[in-house]
């Protein structure tokens, strides 16, 4: 404090300056969620969903209560720290002082949102069993939202558990032989067999669950494992590459623990620690110098499917084809590659009834970008994006008519 007396105008200007400074400081810095008692599990999951911008445009606020509540939370989070009372009420969470499982909470939310939202997280696994003569004994395909990684399966206990090896283990072939033969209808007897698992459909967002809460076979009670896991930044599954952007962490014991989330913000490419209403930059940024990250608290790992080189080239080809076409396409081309893997897929699948999942399907369906405006918005209204599309179609049609009339006039000249 200095002793100089200030004029009211000067004070006002000072206050304005402070206000501006505050706004500047908070720009790009994510906001937290208030804890109602023990709702940290919900807060962590909501923050992950908020940072999963792929789902924002898919929320159907008009027909689904959960979609509407999620949208409200997301809109508030853009501006300031947010309450979750309406969300818990609509979700019928009566006891907000009771700790719940974050993975179950995520599944519950995915159950209740519209299918367009949950399909972003949905993948399919096909399990097959084939006898040594090549007969198919069993084949079944199941959908999943999260893939569990059993810490007990790993051979390297009690040392650091490798998430990459654990993930690969899901797809490892298993053999049945000797005293473990399987009955085959084709051979009409018990034979040796192999069973395998394939990712039939890759989810856009791949969620892995590190099974820290598991049943102890000796005591027959649930225990929590604080085992250190090695989390890779990138995961490869067939031709699809996934990149980690979020982790839900659990600290503490089985009953009295606490959940936080560590998420990469796309706005400033920085990892933040979300601890209820407190959000801070992670002091030592994960993956800054290494391709993996050691954690004894990581519980849910959320990976985003990256665009492949083949897809990139295809988009670029498509972009070049439209070069002498419409100006909008030309402008949008610049951002096509970087934005395609999120919002573009949303647009594509909204236009087509079947969800486009495989690289081949996506390649066939790639269209030049029409409206870039929706890419910058967190919750673009489907109507406005449709209007732009219709506008471009009309514009293109009109241009075509003009060109044809010019040609016709030219041909009729003597
Ligand atoms: Zn057989």
Briefly, what is this?
Helix 2 (40-51) packs across helix 5. The protein has 414 residues and is α+β, with helices and mostly antiparallel strands. The protein contains twelve helices and 19 strands.
Bound molecules: zinc ion
Structural class call reads alpha+beta
Counting H and I runs of at least 4 residues, what is the number of helices? Answer: 12
Instruction: Determine the N-to-C terminus distance.
Output: 89 Å
Sheet with the most strands, sense and barrel status: 8 strands, mixed
> Care to count the β-strands?
19
Q: Name the poorly predicted regions.
A: 1-5, 18-26, 322-394
| Overall spatial form | globular
Residues in β-strands, percent: 25-35%
Rounded to an integer, what's the Rg over CA atoms? Answer: 26 Å
- Measured as a percent range, the helix fraction is 25-40%
Average pLDDT metric: 77
Write a structural description.
- With 414 residues, the chain is of the alpha+beta class.
- Among the domains are: 25-118, no CATH class; 310-390, no CATH class.
- The chain is built from twelve helices and 19 strands.
- It has helices at residues 8-26, 40-51, 65-79, 85-90, 102-112, 115-118, 163-170, 309-321, 327-351, 359-365, 373-376, 382-412; strands spanning 123-131, 136-144, 146-149, 161-162, 174-176, 182-184, 189-191, 193-201, 205-210, 213-216, 221-224, 229-232, 234-237, 240-251, 258-265, 270-275, 278-281, 292-295, 298-305.
- The strands form five sheets. Strands 3, 9, 13, 14, 15, 16, 17 and 19 form an eight-stranded mixed β-sheet that branches. Strands 2-1-8-5 form a four-stranded antiparallel β-sheet, with no helix packed on it. The protein has a three-stranded mixed β-sheet with strand order 4-12-18.
- It is globular, with a radius of gyration of 26 Å.
- It starts with 7 loop residues before the first helix and ends with a helix.
- It binds zinc ion.
